[in-house]
Amino acid sequence: MDAVAHGRVVLGAITAAGGSVLALDYTAARVGGEHFTDPVQRVLFTLLERYASQTGGIMSAAALSDLLRGKQPGTVLMYEEAYAAVAARPVELHAFRHSVAQLRELAAERATAETLAAGSTILLKGLQTGDGREWHGHADAREYVQAGLAEAEQLGNTSDTPEGNVATEGDAVLGAYAQAKELRTRSAGRPVGVQFGLPTLDRYLGSGLGKGLSLVVAGTTVGKSSLCVQAAWHNAVVEGRDVFFFTTEQHRDDVRVKIVARHSRLPKFGLPRGLDTLKILSGDLTEEEERILAWVLDDLKTGAGYGQLQTVQMPEYCTVPVWTSRAEALARRRRPELMVFDYLQLCDPSRQQSRESKEHENQSGIVKSSHRWGQTAFHGHGVALLSPWQANRSGAQALRGSGSFSIDADMSQSSEAGRTASTVLSLSLPEDDTSHGRQVPLVLTVEKNRNGARGAKFRVTADYATSWFTDRVEVSDDPLDLDDR
User: Fold this and answer.
1) Most CB atoms closer than 10 Å: which of 186, 240, 291, 339?
2) Does pTM top 0.90 for this prediction?
3) Could you tell me if 53 and 369 are in contact, meaning their C-beta atoms sit under 8 angstroms apart?
4) Which residues pair with 305 in a beta bridge?
């Protein structure tokens, strides 16, 4: 069987007999549109993924026709016939799994052949790639082929089999532990994984934020977006990780200035309170602050060991497939370890459903599809995905100290937000702020931590002008202990 035949089997397993979300999830975790050589199959698979992220179900033939409304009649007929053909008969489970694996294997073979051919071209006459780079000679050919073969290996890696006996897979566990231990040693004892830059919280979370979705929940203007800026800056500058910061609520220029303001708090610049974000945006810095701003910007550009922190502007109410596709494209140049999305609630799976549906079913779909994407993104490597989330009215009251916060009942728009996310942190302001946003006394609570302890509360101080957060006390497993410190 060739790739087209295997594509028919895979799409048939997803669409036949009313459709199978499990089959789609299994497939999406292992292959992407690039694995389908037939362009019609590629489009059908993309539409199936997009429809599932919006509705949580499998796109029917009627739904496909609705999506194609307004297209040329010939185009509509082509896709309708292709859908009918793959959905015509059920597929055996073993055949489905085999075809998924074969799609990966064949994609790896194609990528390997293309890479080797390009390497020969570089040796013989040189090659200009789409990014404008000129490749010539043996050294360039070797670099190009090594990178291409690594990508081909990722395309065809089938080590993530869907079944296995844990008792006989101990070597894989030991291997993962050895790798984590080596990374910990290389990082001078710092915890491995995505951090917030708050030592007590980072120690409490242990291995940091895992792959998939984590949420920072709070009421309006309490600092959830600022904490995400702090996490993005810390991981890029202090930890040397690559970070993508996607923004819909704010303009990219504003996010960029917040990152600069946070960087200005480093002791070497000699400004204990840093550069105020608002003063930068309004052009109201002193001459001395302007000099330091130039120093800060130069340091961000040339600082040794810093990771890349890429800010990405997305349209308001963009869909999950839109921003995940953008992330996948950007990651072809450099794959991030952390992605911040400010903020996920503004995503709009479907403009054509009712308001009630958008506020419930669709928000649930956004959370589930985002979490699933974070776990399987970038050819299975995954990424830590962090986003602010709004508390509803009862949640905001609870976070002000009038009750107990619940991730099931107090998170705005969707109860699935707290249930799906791997980690949920809440921010509350239990006492008055008399510092005008420069030394805000907050309490940060680990409401959920799927891979470790939860329930601890931390006193932190925030400076909204520079998106800076710092510890005030050590971790407490007993919330009542906070009042006694």
Assistant:
1) 339
2) no
3) yes
4) none
